[in-house]
Specification:
With 170 residues, this protein is α+β, with helices and mostly antiparallel strands. It is built from six helices and three strands; from the N terminus they run αααααββαβ. The chain has a three-stranded mixed β-sheet with strand order 1-2-3, with helices on one face. The longest helix has 29 residues.
Length: 170
């Protein structure tokens, strides 16, 4: 079940090219809230159908435990995945966002082609900031590096506004 807030958060996240961890976290939280609300409403309706003096009458008193357990078990992976990705991002770790990696790597490869030899490209994401570390092996020509850096930023900045390019000798 998706709430209006979930749709709002997702649309706002798309505007930032899904680079906002806060919006992603809010969206996941709203999704979980919606699932829990639906589960509670459905359970309350089903409890009304059970005779309190019947063999399942104990559910009137302990049903909330079973309802909560059944609802939480499928949704537990969401907070854990958000926590691990947020921790990685806040601690300055390499991004696991495959789309971000693919997009940035294409821009780097396009602008380095024939000019320098790319050995490795690491992408770090901290909040809305991305840092691209480009490892090269050729003799470093600082004029070429500055030109390549400007060209890569020209490609990346329309998609990820807050980007930084760093060249390192391998």
């Amino acid at each position: 079940m998706k709430s209006n807030w979930d749709f709002f958060n997702r649309s706002q996240s798309r505007k930032t090219n899904d680079s906002s961890t806060l919006l992603a976290t809010e969206s996941k939280g709203n999704l979980i809230d919606g699932i829990l609300s639906l589960g509670v409403a459905l359970s309350a309706f089903l409890i009304k159908l059970i005779d309190i003096n019947g063999s399942l009458g104990f559910l009137h008193y302990t049903g909330d435990f079973f309802i909560t357990t059944i609802i939480v078990l499928p949704a537990i992976k969401e907070p854990i995945s958000v926590f691990t990705s947020s921790f990685r991002e806040l601690s300055g770790g390499l991004t696991t966002n495959q789309e971000l990696k693919r997009t940035v790597f294409q821009f780097v490869e396009k602008n380095l082609s024939g000019i320098m030899t790319l050995q490795k490209c690491d992408i770090y994401k901290i909040g809305m900031h991305i840092k691209v570390c480009i490892y090269i092996t050729n003799n470093i020509d600082y004029k070429k590096i500055q030109t390549v850096k400007r060209n890569i930023l020209k490609d990346i900045c329309p998609i990820y506004e807050n980007a930084e390019i760093v060249f390192c000798e391998w």
